[in-house]
């Protein structure tokens, strides 16, 4: 049994399978989930777990070389916009419809219980060396 980090067996296993360039969509409870990517649904109730909790947990375990979010987050959800800007220095902003289209190419989708709009980000995995 693991003694720390991400304990959810499905999420931990999915993360171990990721490679350089793979996409991981971390999304709120309302984001349409495309057909194709593996999905780990962590949503329990509205707001649980939060987008911030899940993002921080993933960033502690993944090497991220880039990220993409919807530009609408700046007006519709300033706390999420601040969180993304603080955690992801290489953040690209695109239209929400473009983010939805890009998410179809993700290898993994991690759905949170977040109930605030536009709390979504597509992470691009890097390498540790």
Describe the protein in words.
The protein is of the alpha/beta class and 129 residues long. The protein has five helices and six strands; from the N terminus they run H-E-E-H-E-H-H-E-H-E-E. It has helices at residues 9-16, 51-61, 73-76, 78-87, 96-103; strands at residues 23-27, 38-41, 64-70, 91-94, 108-111, 121-125. It starts with 8 loop residues before the first helix and ends with a strand.
Descriptors:
alpha/beta, 5 helices, six-stranded mixed sheet, 129 residues
Secondary-structure element order, N to C: HEEHEHHEHEE
Structural class determined from secondary elements: alpha/beta
Quick one: overall form?
globular
How widely separated are the two ends?
27 Å
The gyration radius over C-alpha positions equals: 13 Å
Largest sheet: 6 strands, mixed
Strand content: 15-25%
Number of strands: 6
Strand order of the largest sheet: 2-5-1-6-3-4
The helix content is: 25-40%
**Overall pLDDT level:** 97
Q: Regions with pLDDT < 50 over 5+ consecutive residues?
A: none
Number of helices: 5
Concise summary:
This protein has 5 helices and 6 strands. The protein has 129 residues and is an alpha/beta fold.
Q: What is the strand and helix layout of this fold?
A:
Elements (H helix, E strand, L loop, with lengths): L8 H8 L6 E5 L10 E4 L9 H11 L2 E7 L2 H4 L1 H10 L3 E4 L1 H8 L4 E4 L9 E5 L4
Parallel strand pairs: 1-5, 2-5, 3-4
Antiparallel strand pairs: 1-6, 3-6
